[in-house]
Amino acid sequence: MSALLDGITVLVVEDQFFIALELKAMIRDLGGTVAGPVAHLDSARTLVRQEQINCAILDVKLDGNTSLPLADELIASGVPVILVSGYDSNQLPNRFADTPKLRKPVSVAELTRVLERIFQQGASPTSG
Amino acid sequence: MPRLPTTKRSGKQTSLGRGLLKTHMELDSRLAEAMIVTVRQPLMVLNAELRVERANPAFYDLFKVEPGQTGGRLIYEIGNGQWNIPPLRHLLDAVLDGEEHVENFRVEHEFEDIGRRIMLLNARRIVDEEARLVLLTINDVTELERARFELEGQKEFAEKLSNSVREAMIVLGWDLRVSHANETFCETFKVRPEETEGRMIYDLGNGQWNIPRLRLLLEDILPKERSFDDYEVEHDFETIGRRTMLLNARRLDHANQILLAIRDVTEKLRFEAQERAKVGELQHRVKNILANVRALFALSRRHSLTVEDFVTSFESRLASLAQTQDLLVSNSSDSARLDELVRLELAAHEGDKVVVQGPRVDLPPRIAQAVAMAIHELVTNAAKYGALSRESGSISVGWRTEQRDGNEYITFQWRERGVPIQIAATKKGFGSEIIEHSLPYALGGKAQLAFHSDGVECIIEFPLSEHRDS
Questions:
Q1: CB contact under 8 A, B433 and A87
Q2: Fold of B22-140
Q3: Has the ipTM of the complex gone over 0.90?
Q4: Contact A46, A64 (CB under 8 A)
Q5: Cα(B260)–Cα(B265) distance, rounded to whole angstroms?
Q6: pTM for the full model?
Q7: Span B308-463: which CATH code?
Q8: pLDDT for position B358
Q9: Do B365 and B341 form a contact (C-beta atoms < 8 A)?
């Protein structure tokens, strides 16, 4: 199997331990390197400063918090973002209309499909 | 003007005018006769002995007696003695000897033929040269009183009814002035009954009922519709704060009134919102658990070498999750005691190999799940390679609490002894990852596994508060 995420570092922000571990394992299966996973925004920002992040998978709802400000920052600096919305997710703000989204629970197939759109079509973001 | 024989006569008459007077008297008496026969009111003329001199057709009609049975007879004897009424005797005696007339003397009496009657009696003494007479008129007010009684009864019934319902009710006239406000209304909206009656509804309680939507309903909708139901009105009241009310109104056209019922649904709505939030929270938690189980399933499969290995590890992890959930649910405070978690995880390994010691600590749900999962993995490892896998092994489990920066911290220690060091056990697998990271990952604190020459030691430190600032 060709490695889709060869040489790519993916930041994983997810506050549920087992779900984060599984995401990490999936990304490794696809050949990527994982930054994190982390459960909190402050540790995520630390990683963004320290490492070369090529892509970020963000759980929208973190423990009493939202990752959308971090999504804004990453998108502004040109890092592709995938938003993982919860099973009870509310409508996301309109500015994220074109941002790739995954619904929990995230399956390997869905994750692969979204990552393929980002990384196999060059740097251009996909249109939904 | 013709004068009735009942009028008081002047005793001073000149002899000169006597002829003229006689003519007048004849006219008077013919007129009186005509009147007696014509009036619809029963009347009797009694002489000084209280014998009936005259009675009129209205009297015969009402009391169902014949003229032949009355004329010349003592009043107390007529109609089988049914007029032998003590208050009447008293009245007649008074009029004969003292008072010139008595009016509206109320007598209630059960008559043989016509039943219970309420009468207002007017008695007037007429004194002539020849005789003393008593004119007795009988005003039968039975029906009138009954009607009034019924009306009052109905009014009382209506008031009692309106006061017994738990809904605030108010009766308005067409001019929108309050004619009645029930007890619930007064209690709910903190007004006194005397402050309501006769006042415009909009002026009640400092104008707090001057609500645009209510005006619309009363002034525009009701004149067209006859009624309206369950109109929701939200309003800030001066005395009782923000309320949500359902208004129901009926036009009572026959009485020119409006009945307005006001149901205060504020508490009900608040309760329903709470219930929805609870159900939402529960749903969130269930989905969360399922998502975790799914991830745990995938991870257990990933870290298992054989199917049997996978089945055993996943099944026991699932059982641990379930039993912690049971513990949380059975506890009304939505927390789980650390000692109970430890005992539950060790339940399959009874005996004196394990000593558990620590103060009572109540763990909130997420911490409880993470701690239970870590303990589960410790127990699993101990059963596979450690203290629970051999005779010589023993485990001491203990914890203490301390305050750090205003937070309560738990330091949990798991120490195995009597286990010869095994290289195999030092290889960190998925179980070790759970032990070292499941709690610190999202909830703060730290966990460390150490391999001593006589067995494993695990120390987990964590704050008791679930939310970490980020």
A1: no
A2: Beta-Lactamase (3.30.450)
A3: no
A4: no
A5: 15
A6: 0.60
A7: 3.30.565.10
A8: 92
A9: no
